[in-house]
Amino acid sequence: xxxxxxxxxxxxxxxxxxxxxxxxxxxxxxxxxxxxxxxxxxxxxxxxxxxxxxxxxxxxxxxxxxxxxxxxxxxxxxxxxxxxxxxxxxxxxxxxxxxxxxxxxxxxxxxxxxxxxxxxxxxxxxxxxxxxxxxxxxxxxxxx
Length: 144
Known about the structure:
One of its GO terms (cellular component) is membrane. It contains six helices and no strands. It is mostly helical.
C-alpha cells in the first residue's frame, strides 16, 4: 500500500466513524419513521452484501462467482448501502454531506481498483468488466 493509499484509507475510516456518530446523535432528526424503517432495511441489505462478498473473496485470486457475478464491486456496494442507510436513519444535513463525500471516495476507489485489476489480470478482467456491471445490482440480476 502506498502512502497515498494509506492516507486515503485513514480519511475514509475517519469519515465513516463520523458518519456513524452523526447518525447516532441526530437519529431520526426529522421525525420521519418511514425513513428509519427504510434505513434499517437498506442497512440489512448492505451488511448481507458485505458479508457475502467478504466470504467469496476469501477464495483468493480473481473471483467472479457469488456476488462478484452480479457486480464487480459488491463490497463497495455494501458500504454504499450502509452509508445510505445511515443517512436515512439520521435525516440530517451533516449526515447527507458526510455520506456524499464517503460515496464519492468509494467511487474513486472503485476506479483505482479496476485500474490495478486490469494490470494484474489483463484481458480476463477487461472481459469481466464487459459482462458484469460495476455496482448496478439490478442490471446484474437481470442476467439471471
